[in-house]
Amino acid sequence: MSSSSARGDQWTFLTNHARVLLWIARDPEVRLRDVSAGIGITERAVQIIVADLEAAGYLTRTRVGRRNRYTIDTSVALRHPSEADHPVGDLLGAFLHREDTREADPAEPETAAGP
Questions:
Q1: pTM score, two decimals?
Q2: Which residue ranges does the record annotate as region Disordered (predicted)?
Q3: Tell me: the pLDDT tens digits for 29-39?
Q4: What's the structural domain count of the chain?
Q5: Residue 37's domain spans which residues?
Q6: Is the CB of residue 50 less than 8 Å from the CB of residue 32?
């Protein structure tokens, strides 16, 4: 087996930053330990990622009692120059919309509303 084949199953399309942002988008009051467990990275890594996302303007953290509530600014552009013409909301919308459609009853076909 070549070394490229051995590495082939280790990469993914999304970064941990994208995964954390998606978890927060699904539940703005999520605990970081739950994000950590769901993604499979340390809680400290999630804390660092949240700090990165906050510093870059993608999200804000508001203290509500003993918990944090996160608000995402979906208008902030993606960071890589080749994707900078897309807001992060496009990425979130693609993934969150897909998750919403999975929850629909697959036995019932979607129909367009007609006159």
A1: 0.77
A2: 96-115
A3: 999 999 999 99
A4: 1
A5: 12-103
A6: yes
